[in-house]
Design a protein that fits this description.
Layout: H1 15-18, H2 48-59, H3 83-86, H4 89-204, E1 215-216, E2 235-238, E3 244-246, E4 251-258, E5 264-270, E6 275-284, E7 289-291, E8 296-300, E9 310-317, E10 320-322, H5 324-330
Antiparallel strand pairs: 1-2, 2-9, 3-8, 4-5, 4-7, 5-6, 6-8, 6-9, 9-10
Length: 335
């Protein structure tokens, strides 16, 4: 290929024949003599001498070889300290300025890319930390919500249990109150009935209490050495001496007088054959004949085997003693 000033300049071999052309410091050394370096498009001038040096370097001293037989290797552009010296005038200054501008541009891009990479890494790290913190906050919020829900459920269950216990206690109290009221009502009804019967009997003159202003001291069946039979055969009404003693029902006095341990005694026989004994009397008002219910027949005393003034009342049926308290209650008398 003809070059400037009629000098023939050969182009470097193509990549297919030689691989990549790798210029060296020797290949671009300034040419002495009449040859001038022409400016090419890539900013690099080469002469036929430079080309020959490159060919010799590529082929080697051992003989002719083809570049196709050699493995392709990566090359890098070496520093060219003498390159500005090959250029004259504006061309050198432009080449020097272009190289400086290229180096500055390259350096700026690399610095900018490095700074952008560092910023991107920081942004990514910040986003990862934010995401982790957000996930941790969400987990903590969920745990708090679960704890609050469990606490509400526990409080609701406790309130429900307390309400149920209060309801059961109220029902039990109500049942107990109703049972107690029923018992009291029943007792009151019985007492009212007995009082009514007593009042009716007293009004009709059928039965009456044997004395008044008394205190029951010894009941029927109590065992002890104080009694000759070994147990108490009557009911004792303790009262002051001289307190009136009355017939419990209409009947006939069949016996009146002293009777040993009984002291002064009156025996009243009723219409059904029941005998009522009045013992330890201080005096006897009626000693024979018929008497009405509630009529006075004697006075309370302390005669016979006694420790104090009282009326010993015995009730006998068919010759055997019975409980005077039960017999009087059966007649409607509230003793």
């Amino acid at each position: 290929m003809p070059g400037p000033e009629g000098i023939e300049v050969q182009e470097p071999p193509t990549a297919g024949a030689w691989g990549e052309w790798n210029p060296t410091e020797d290949s671009v050394r300034p040419v002495r003599g009449k040859h001038r370096v022409a400016k090419q498009r890539g900013g690099l001038a080469r002469s036929s001498t430079v080309l020959g040096v490159g060919v010799i370097a590529a082929v080697g001293a051992s003989g002719i070889a083809t570049a196709q037989d050699r493995p392709q290797v990566a090359i890098s552009l070496p520093d060219l300290p003498d390159l500005p010296g090959l250029m004259t005038g504006d061309q050198g200054r432009q080449a020097d300025g272009g190289a400086a501008a290229a180096a500055a541009a390259k350096t700026g891009i690399i610095a900018q890319q490095s700074e952008q990479g560092a910023d991107a890494g920081e942004v990514l790290r910040h986003r990862i930390l934010q995401q982790a913190e957000s996930q941790q906050n969400a987990a903590e919020a969920q745990a708090r919500a679960e704890a609050e829900r469990a606490a509400r459920e526990t409080a609701a269950q406790e309130a429900k249990d307390k309400l149920e216990a209060a309801r059961k206690a109220a029902e039990e109290a109500k049942a107990q109150a109703e049972a107690k009221a029923a018992e009291e009502a029943e007792a009151a009804a019985k007492a009212a009935a007995a009082k009514a019967e007593q009042e009716r009997a007293a009004a009709s003159g059928a039965y009456a209490l044997p004395t008044s202003a008394y205190t029951l001291t010894s009941h029927y069946g109590v065992a002890g050495s104080m009694w000759s039979s070994g147990y108490h055969t009557g009911l004792d009404f303790a009262a002051p001496t001289g307190t009136p003693v009355k017939a419990v029902a209409a009947g006939t006095i069949t016996s009146a007088g002293w009777s040993g341990a009984y002291g002064y005694r009156i025996v009243l026989e009723l219409e059904d054959g029941t005998e009522v004994w009045y013992c330890h009397l201080s005096s006897m008002s009626v000693t024979s004949g018929s008497v009405a219910a509630g009529s006075t027949i004697g006075r309370v005393g302390a005669t016979g085997n006694v420790t104090g003034p009282h009326l010993h009342l015995e009730v006998r049926k068919g010759g055997s003693t019975v409980d005077p308290l039960a017999w009087l209650n059966s007649k409607g008398l509230n003793v």
